[in-house]
Amino acid sequence: MRLTDLPKGASALVRTVEDAHASDAIAQRLRDLGFVPGEPVRVVACAPWGADPLLIQIGSTRFALRRAEAQRVRVTGQTA
Amino acid sequence: MSQSPLRVALVGNPNCGKTALFNLLTGARQKVANYAGVTVERKEGRFDTPAGRRVQLLDLPGTYSFETTSPDERVTRDVLQGRYPGEAVPDLIVCVADATNLRLHLRFVLEVKRMGLPMVLALNMMDAAKRRSITVDVAGLERRLAMPVVETVAVRRGGAHALIGMLDAHAPSARASANADASADDARRSAQSAQPAAYADTHAEVRAILADTVTMPRATDARDDAIDRWALHPVTGPLILAAVMFLVFQGVYSFGKPMTDAIGDAFTWLGALASAWLPAGPLHSLITDGIFNGLGTVLGFLPEILVLFLFILVLEESGYLPRAAFLLDRMMVSVGLTGRSFIPLLSSFACAIPGVMGTRSITDPRDRLATILVAPLMTCSARLPVYALLIGAFIPHRPVLGIFNLQGLVLFALYAVGIAGAMAVGWVMKHLRRDRSEHALLMELPSYRLPKARDIVLGLWERGMIFLKRLTGVILALTVLMWFISTFPAPPAGATGPAINYSIAGYIGRALQYPFAPLGFNWQISLSLIPAFAARETAVAALATVYSVASGDADITTLSHALAANIPLASALSLMVWFAFAPQCMSTLAVIRRETRSWRNVAISFGYMFVVAYVAAFATYQIARHFT
Questions:
Q1: Closest CA to A62 of A49, A47, A80, A43
Q2: Which residues of chain A neighbour B200 with C-beta distances below 8 Å?
């Protein structure tokens, strides 16, 4: 399952961050920001107009991620 | 004790309070606000510790990681690695971390630690952590990290006592060996970053440290969650944003206007007083026409500018701006910008110069350039006097729908025209460029914070002083020049027309009128466009001076009477539209040159704005003429 598939308010654990292409700087930055295996994430809010970007909480930090960015994050369900 | 100062660098994740700490330690007043990326360049300050030790403090832009992605983050990495031109590796690193957000911030602490430089960890925002019942075992953290850890509250006086004590105790001898370590570590570090496993390792280490030393009853602030439920809601969120923006513009007009009128009255009285005391002659004319009418008219708009800044400062401090960026990202992407453009564009309402500089926090050079090119279309505070003057002269003060007034609505419309123009220009640029690769938003949303009255007052004071300095500097010089060219040479003996027609100003104005006549500008307006290029407000001072010299006396109210009597409504509308789009002041163009390092971008910026302004003002005048 991808982070973008999670409904609003749902939590899950990060499985991995995929590179969309070779030396993907965005995937790299996501890993830097703490999107590493086993980290719990939650979809806090979705912006109007196509639910893009998403507001993702990881730890005690909230990040706005566009769907294209959140697409890179694979999660395993543990839906609340 | 060593004679040379201890060189200390503040580093840390964005928005952890480095600059607030810098200000607290050095007594400086660098800009602080509640969003990531306020500080975009290195700032330097000095202070002495109680023990008499001189400290040279470096404030660096916040960064999430040394795998940098934006120009401001690169500065920090280069300074710490000794690659920044003219900057030696610091003696001591003070790594600042937000105590309420250690899971993210400790990771960077570990990354900095690997560089091997002597360092101290400052746990900042301890007040917020205590409020949320977060406890940190400082001694345990010191042991785990093998570095001194101090608690700080950068927004409270005396909140850095522990840190200052630590600096006194720090022995400078570690330097030479630290440098050698740094280069060795550098090599090790780049080897590490090649393997993705290192990231997971660092995070695992952070998790283990947190489990041992930090207790956090709740991952987020309950207050933030409650506000965000409404502020980020797909329906109420945009409504709240629209209401906030509308309130700002109505507020500028409703609160600022009465004060402006009071200042205008005071200057009329002063001018009358001065003219009674001074003997008639050129000096009399310079003081009353040039200084009191020219400068006084511009000074009258100080309250409006301060009200605008009050709103901007409160918004910046509150933490709401990144939320607005979140709500608007999709819309901004569709016009070739990014949600990250929102904050620089909003600061451009104050002035395009900090706006253009603020774009450094935009990661992607393409989005950054697009933002720089449209930023001057946001109505800066220097245009406010021009709009306020014309609205006061031509738009009747009458209520609309009971709660709004027509003058406020027209002002709002002028701001909206600028925004619509920026969206159109962005859209065109998006379709012209070839690079269509993906660029990330990846923006952190900070905790809400109640703005501190002291910071707001200081911020307003600073802006007020900047305005007064401009007024007594460039605007004064131009006003005196305008007075000079509209007074000399005196008309020849036997001249029949008004004296000003024979002055230098009269000749220049009439020559300029040829290109601007199709826009409905008379020669006085055409002439005022020239000094407006140096500073927008000067257009008002120039018009006041020219009409004042011509008629013998004027102040804000009579300037608006003079305008109402001399130009038709269609010309006034056309002039407002011109100012909405016209190429902005020289300082803005200079800062675009500095930030993009390209004269080509300056030419593009100037060229497209001139064409858009000319066409839009032309259309406004020609259409309005048919209806009035």
A1: A43
A2: 36-37
- Residue A48 CB neighbours (<10 A): 17
Q: Residue A64: what are its φ and ψ, rounded to 5°? A: -85, 120
Q: How far apart are CA B32 and CA B21, in angstroms?
A: 10
Got the DSSP string for B446-468?
PPP-PPPHHHHHHHHHHHHHHHH
On chain A, the residues whose CB falls within 8 A of the CB of B234 are 46-48, 51
A19 contacts chain B (CB < 8 A) = no
pLDDT (average), residues B541-563: 71
Contact A37 B64 (CB under 8 A): no
Model pTM?
0.81
Q: Is B137 exposed, middle or buried (0-12, 13-18, 19+ CB in 10 A)?
A: middle
H-run or E-run covering B58 = strand B54-59
Q: Which A-chain residues 31-60 have CB contacts (< 8 A) with chain B?
A: 31-34, 36-37, 39, 44-53, 55, 57, 59-60
Picking from B83, B91, B87, B81, the residue whose alpha carbon sits closest to that of residue B118 is B91
Distance CA B623, CA B628 (A): 9
Q: In whole angstroms, what is the distance from residue B203 CA to residue B522 CA?
A: 68
Helix H segments across B395-452?
406-432
Chain B residues near residue A66 by CB distance under 8 angstroms: 329, 333, 440-441
**Tell me, what's the pLDDT at B184?**
45
* List of chain A residues whose C-beta atoms are within 8 Å of the C-beta of residue B331: 49
Min CA distance, B141 vs chain A (Å)? 19
Please give the Cα distance from B368 to B358 (Å, whole number): 10
Average pLDDT on B296-310 reads 78
CA A50 to chain centre: 17
Q: How far apart are CA B422 and CA B400, in angstroms?
A: 28
Select the residue of A25, A52, A63 nearest B444 (Cβ to Cβ).
A63
* Contact (CB, 8 A) for B410 and B377: no
The answer to whether A20 faces chain B, any CB pair under 8 Å, is yes
Q: How far is B364 from chain A (nearest CA, A)?
A: 11
Q: Is the pLDDT of residue B43 over 80?
A: yes
Q: Which of B321-335, B401-415, B483-497 shows the highest mean pLDDT?
A: B321-335
B241 contact A CB<8A: no
Looking at the partner chain, which of A32, A39, A52 has a beta carbon nearest the beta carbon of B330?
Answer: A52
Q: How far apart are CA B442 and CA B327, in angstroms?
A: 14
Inter-axis angle of helices B538-551 and B476-487, nearest 10: 30
Residue B441 forms contact with A (CB below 8 Å): yes
Residues of A with Cβ-Cβ distance to B100 under 8 angstroms: 60
- pLDDT exceeds cutoff 60 at B1: no
The pLDDT value recorded for residue B183 is 47
Residue B112 CA, chain-centre distance (Å), reads 30
Place of tokens 């109640």: B450
- Sign of the Cα pseudo-torsion (B587, B589, B594, B599, in order): negative
Which residue reads 């499985």 in tokens? A15
**Of B67, B203, B330, Cβ closest to residue A47:** B330
Contact A59 B219 (CB under 8 A): yes
Among B107, B203, B441, the residue with its CB nearest the CB of A66 is B441
Statement: residue B409 has pLDDT above 90: no
Q: Which pLDDT belongs to residue B109? A: 93
Q: Is the peptide bond before A53 cis (omega within 30 degrees of 0)?
A: yes
